[in-house]
Design brief:
Helix content is 57%, strand content 6%. It is mainly α.
Length: 109
């Protein structure tokens, strides 16, 4: 997300389906490949034409502008969270202080 790259998700097992759904439907920064192409290829097998079609859709298609805008927004927000004073940086500082004791965080900086 920090890299600012749209995601073409291809969930195969476990939590990948949830992650793909979150990225595509909730966050809106990508598209998902269909795992059961029309020719009923085995699960997890996607034909090159299907991948190419989705890449073109992601780059130039109807929703591409919306996805690119959302990717930029999410990337800026995620990157900002990791900077000094950002939410992730502050939370990590609190965790280090909690685990190692107050002031321990200053040793790591």
């Amino acid at each position: 997300m920090c890299a600012g790259v749209a995601i073409l998700a291809m969930p195969l097992m476990a939590e990948q389906h949830l992650n793909a759904r979150m990225v595509v439907e909730e966050i809106g920064m990508g598209l998902s490949l269909r795992l059961w192409p029309r020719n009923m290829a085995p699960r997890g097998v996607v034909e090159a034409e299907e991948v190419a079609k989705m890449v073109v859709e992601l780059m130039e298609g109807e929703g591409a502008k919306r996805v690119r805008k959302r990717v930029k927004e999410v990337s800026e927000c995620a990157y900002g969270a990791t900077e000094e004073g950002g939410s992730s940086s502050r939370t990590l500082d609190l965790l280090i202080d909690h685990v190692c004791g107050e002031g321990a965080n200053k040793v790591f900086k």
